[in-house]
Structure formats: structure tokens, C-alpha cells
Amino acid sequence: MAENFISTENGNIKISEEVIIRISAISAREVEGVAGLGTGSGWGDLLSKKTPAKGIKVEIKDDATIIDVHVTVKFGVKINDIAYNLQKKVKNSVESYAGLDNITVNVFVDGIENENAPKEDKEDEEGK
After folding, report:
1. Using CA atoms, how far apart are residues 87 and 27, in angstroms rounded to an integer?
2. Which domains does the chain possess?
3. Are 89 and 29 contacting, i.e. CB atoms less than 8 angstroms apart?
4. Are 58 and 78 in contact (CB under 8 A)?
5. How far is Cα 80 from Cα 109, in angstroms, rounded to an integer?
6. What is residue 59's predicted lDDT score, i.e. its pLDDT?
7. pLDDT (tens digit, 9 = 90+) per residue, 11-60?
8. Which residues contact 116 (CB under 8 A, 6 or more apart)?
9. Which residues of 44-81 are buried (b: 16+ CB within 10 A; e: fewer)?
10. Angle, to 10 degrees, between the axis of helix 79-98 and the axis of helix 17-29?
11. What span, in angstroms and rounded, lies between the C-alpha atoms of 110 and 101?
């Protein structure tokens, strides 16, 4: 993990990767059409200290921040639009809250969730 300090007239500020992950997770969940992060995600995962947010990885290289976001989307949404909105939301949030720039957000759509499927069908889909 590269040291990523923001220099000010009073000293340096270091924002941990975990903070960037949490900002990204909260922002990603706010995007309409996102059903969850990673696999088996829930608010408990987001708030847990052991797992800041399943499905999000942050890498800081030199002056660039690369954020990978793995999501499950809701059935019936236009996936490209959701992914684009997610990129914008996460990037804008990290820039705004953490004061970082030169941010790349990669979105990986790993699943689709059908909220209206009968419970039996959901279990069949999960078992496959």
C-alpha cells in the first residue's frame, strides 16, 4: 500500500484505503438499480470492521486511486446506465469527501437479482 499523503501548510493528511472503501460502498448502495455489493452483501457487512464492504477494492498508485466495485443489479434495469451512474456517484463522492482526484472507478456487474421471483425460483437460482 503506497503512502498517499495530502500536504497542507500545517502538515500532512493520510486517508486510509478503508475510508475510501466505506465512502465507495455507501455511495454505490445509493445508486438506483444496485441490489447489492459483491456476494452476500448486506448492511452488516458495510458496518463491520472486519469486512468494510464486500465487493470493493481500492488501490493507490502514485497519485492515482483505482476503485473496483463488484455489484449485483436489479432485474429489469439497463445495466450500462446503472454502471455509468455508479461510476459517477462513487467518483464524485470520493473526490468530495476525501479530497482525492485522479480517480478511476471500474464496475463489475457480477449478478442480477429478480425481486419479483417466487421464493422457490430464487433458491433454485442461488443453488446453480
Report:
1. 10
2. 5-127 (3.30.70.1350)
3. no
4. no
5. 10
6. 93
7. 988 888 999 999 999 999 999 999 999 864 444 444 444 455 689 999 98
8. 75
9. ebbeeeeebbbbbbbebeeeebebebbbbbbeeeeeee
10. 140
11. 27
Query: What is the DSSP pairing of strand 56-61 with strand 34-37?
Result: unpaired
Would you say residue 101 has pLDDT above 80?
A: yes
Question: What pLDDT, on the 0 to 100 scale, is given for residue 13?
Answer: 86
Angle at 112 between CA 53 and CA 97, to 5 degrees: 35
Q: Are 4 and 58 in contact (CB under 8 A)?
A: no
Render pLDDT for 72-86 as a digit per residue (tens, 0 to 9): 999 999 999 999 999
Task: Tally Cβ neighbours within 10 Å of residue 92.
Answer: 13
